[in-house]
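pinging the channel bc i need a second pair of eyes. not urgent but kinda urgent?? the chain im working w is below, pasted from the shared doc
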Amino acid sequence: MTHGCLKCLKYTMCVANFLCFMSGVAVLGFGVYMLINFKLTALTPSLANFNLANMLLISGIIISCVSFLGFLGALKENRCLLLTFFLMLFFLLLVQLTAACLLLLYEKDIADWGERDLNDGLKEAKGKNPGEFRSEWDLVQKTFDCCGVYNVSDWGDNVPESCCLKDCTGPPHTPQYRSTGCLDKLRTWFEEHFLSTGISIIVLCIIEVLGMCFAMTLFCHISRSGLGYKL
């Protein structure tokens, strides 16, 4: 009975980690696509190296590597791989909990920093050629139906087409622009998705804890069996 349960646990770990590995590969591929097609660096200059594409690449690599270790360790019943898998999950769990606590403690400071960084990004964008920055701001302004940081006046006389709603080709028409700034829209978006993001983090932590429990259970069983390093 015990042997059957452990077999079931072993193959459950294999299937779960294989699915996570495929998800990691998908995230990695999407990150490469974003890196090639969208260079979102002008929005927040201080986070130029931590844009969405780079974060997807890093997340995809981490998910793929950790899940591959779990899959191979369970399949081969290798104690070394299972212990490495356990320690990596434990480290990731600590990082996530630390990041969540810091975000809650310094929420106001992070919001102020984000506002300053958006203003700096807009200032840099206005000083460049349109082709160098408008693809970035156009994407955000069209997605969130906003214009500038606070309103359209932030762009001065060089208003991009993504701010336009109607009759923006010039006289005799009176142009109509998006009235809301991207800062307010982004704040609203984060507030609306705060609960779902928190639930997702909690679910992810639960999955990681279960993975750690499964890995340690297999590790202990293999140790008692006198196995563990066969390949």
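so The two ends are 26 Å apart (CA to CA). and Residues 74 and 178 are 55 Å apart (CA to CA). — does that match what u expected or am i reading it wrong
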